[in-house]
Amino acid sequence: MTAKTLTDTAAALLAADKGLLAMDESNATCNKRFAALGIPQTEAARRDWRELIVTAPGLSDSIGGAILFDETLRQTTHAGVPFAQALAAAGIVPGIKVDTGAKPLAGHPGETVTEGLDGLRERLAEYAGLGARFAKWRGVIAIGAGLPSRACIRVNAHALARYAALCQEAGLVPIVEPEVLMDGDHSLARCAEVTEEVLHRTFAELRAQGVLLEGMLLKPNMVLPAQNAAVQDDVAAVADATVHCLLRSVPAAVPGVAFLSGGQSAQLASARLNAMNARFGAGLPWALSFSFSRAVQQPALELWKGDPARVSEAQKALVFRARCNRAARRGTYDARNDAPL
Description:
By secondary structure, this protein is α/β, with parallel strands linked by helices. It has a single domain, classed as Aldolase class I (TIM Barrel, Alpha-Beta Barrel). The protein is 46% helix and 15% strand. The strands form two sheets. The protein has an eight-stranded parallel β-sheet with strand order 8-7-6-3-2-1-10-9. It has a two-stranded antiparallel ribbon with strand order 4-5. β9, α10 and β10 form a beta-alpha-beta unit. α8 packs parallel to α9, α10 packs parallel to α12 and α11 packs antiparallel against α12. The longest helix is centred in the middle third of the chain and has 21 residues.
């Protein structure tokens, strides 16, 4: 696979101020979200929900790529069209989550390592045959008393790099996701310190594995105070801290940074992304975009609740949130025209 193919795909994912839609929840996570809203936890209900997303009119105006779960990549619309094919026909690049989840890290209580490298080369070839053009792998880093350990950071960075190299070998653009969690009571400054260390280590491992930086995208957390932090810094402070952290740790060769939402509200995630682009966007070496899941989907899910009569209404809510985030990429999102933060 040529470098040009990888760089062209990476560029297509974020072209025209678009972002990514993460619709790659595992069945267990999706079922948990369904249960909270009284939606049946069945394969049929999951397919109905994902068809609602894939067929939403106008979604491709703001979404350049969609990350699918294994089950979703194999599902079809009720008309028999594979979801990957339906997305591609709408102008959305289909992708696939390929890690098998974070598991306890031996010898390090409270920390995890993401698994899924065994057999990954063969799975990537199969996914490419099913229509995927990019992939995603998530490493998870917790902040707490004595955490994170250097061992946790190193082992997750190494796994991300090996995954990325295998993706590029298979012709798939790797989305590299090292997530520093919002859980806890740590400060904005502590999150910045840990995020910078995690990113430095991740890019050191990516270089060691020969990953083409121009043919990948980074999916990091924003630099945030923890959910239970005593001080909840304002939107401008988050924007400043996040951009300064990225400037210190992300090579200019990387074409784009697509933030995860990580439990932020839909409106706050949009406002923070908007502040980064409004304050810094024109002078940055990489695009600042989004790869949100709940921050785009949750309002639509709460409207739908499994009711076929509400599909159109839910699709409009989904497209609206995607458009809010496209505006945030441009630095033109106006929270006054959205729900309260």
